[in-house]
Amino acid sequence: MSITKLGLRERLFLSHLVVMVVGIATLVAIGKFYSPRLFVLYLQQMEFSGVNLVFVRRRLLEGFESAWSRGALWSVVVGIVAAGGLSYWLSKLITQPLIQMERVTRKLAAGELEERVPKSEIPEVNRLALSFNRMATNLEGVEQRRRELIGDLTHELRTPLTIVQGYLEGLSDGTIEPSVAIYQRLAHETERLRHLVNDLQELSQAEAGYLPIRSQPVDVRSYLETLRQTFAEQVLDDDPVLCLDCPPDLPLVLADPERLEQVMVNLLGNALRHTEHGTITLQAWTEGGLVWIAVQDTGEGISDEDLPHVFDRFWRADRSRDRNSGGTGIGLAISRRLVELHGGSIHVESELGKGSTFHFSLPIA
């Protein structure tokens, strides 16, 4: 059998045997060559001291060689048996965690994502097991998020499709009289479906890194001032009030203006949905070699248990109200990925009943 076809246990065992055989062969060869000569030198020293060994010298030498050969033979036999057993035990000890890991891998491939590799007494193998278990945990999380995504997507699509189907069936059988309001409602639900599909496509492209980021120097203060005026004139009435807090000497940032606008519109839209009265403030400052931009509101705020999930897909603290207002629950997930593609990070701070602050960083040009 070719050595390339041997398993790890057989290779370890064979390597131990080879080392053992080389060691024993070296010991026997050196002993066979030098031991008789050393014994002869010892006999000569005895003769120099006055002992007459003329008649027994040859017999002594033959007896020594015979005894040494028998001792060497038994040493080789016992050494091979002991070393072979120890090599087999060590090989099994080393390969057993790897065999268990192989079994766990097969179970993971079969969908049993809760399986984990047990700890090992061998530090290197134990580190490998820990890394493997972390990978398995991540896979389990990915699978869980995939299932949640499918469930949430099904839920999001079902609501507008049910409404559209109900109105169309009512219009077709005459139970609902056609009117401008009915057609507006159908158009509204169709627009919701279009927004959902577009957001899903954009989120998929962003997470896969396919969205192009065409960075260029951007004047943050001028940009935020234009954004504030646009929202104040087209979206806001008298309440809430949109304010700007930005120093005049803010440095330019490297950003894609189109993607930056998408992030800001998502954050502002989120603030508007949760702030009926009070203020929404656009802030910008420099810290740690980065420019930070924040959207701060005095709205409802987010509870502590919901705060870690605000950037998750389809997350909503109040599903029913967000659904009626047209939110898809994907905007913040898209915003986070767009900020990351710019080389920045996004964070949220919030207190229930007092408002929220979303802030993200951008590199300085």
Short recap of the structure:
It contains eight helices and seven strands.
| Biggest sheet layout | 5 strands, mixed
Outline type: elongated
Helix content: 55-70%
As a whole number of angstroms, the C-alpha radius of gyration is 39 Å
Strand content: 5-15%
Distance between the termini: 64 Å
Unreliable residue stretches: 319-326
DSSP strand tally: 7
The strand order across the widest sheet is 2-4-5-7-6
Count of individual helical segments: 8
Rounded mean pLDDT score: 78
Q: Give the helix/strand class.
A: alpha+beta
Order of helices and strands: HHHHEHEEHEEHHEE
Outline the secondary-structure elements.
Layout: H1 8-48, H2 57-109, H3 123-173, H4 180-208, E1 216-218, H5 220-234, E2 241-245, E3 253-255, H6 257-273, E4 279-287, E5 290-297, H7 319-324, H8 331-341, E6 346-351, E7 355-363
Parallel strand pairs: 2-4
Antiparallel strand pairs: 1-3, 4-5, 5-7, 6-7
Helix pairs in contact: 1-2, 2-3, 3-4, 4-8, 6-8
What does this structure look like?
The protein is an alpha+beta fold and 365 residues long. Helix content is 61%, strand content 12%. It is built from 8 helices and 7 strands; from the N terminus they run H-H-H-H-E-H-E-E-H-E-E-H-H-E-E. The protein has helices spanning 8-48, 57-109, 123-173, 180-208, 220-234, 257-273, 319-324, 331-341; strands spanning 216-218, 241-245, 253-255, 279-287, 290-297, 346-351, 355-363. The protein has a 5-stranded mixed beta sheet. Strand 6 (346-351) and strand 7 form a beta hairpin. Helix 3 runs antiparallel to helix 4 (180-208), helix 4 (180-208) packs parallel to helix 8 and helix 6 (257-273) packs antiparallel against helix 8. It is elongated, with a radius of gyration of 39 Å. The relative contact order is 0.07.
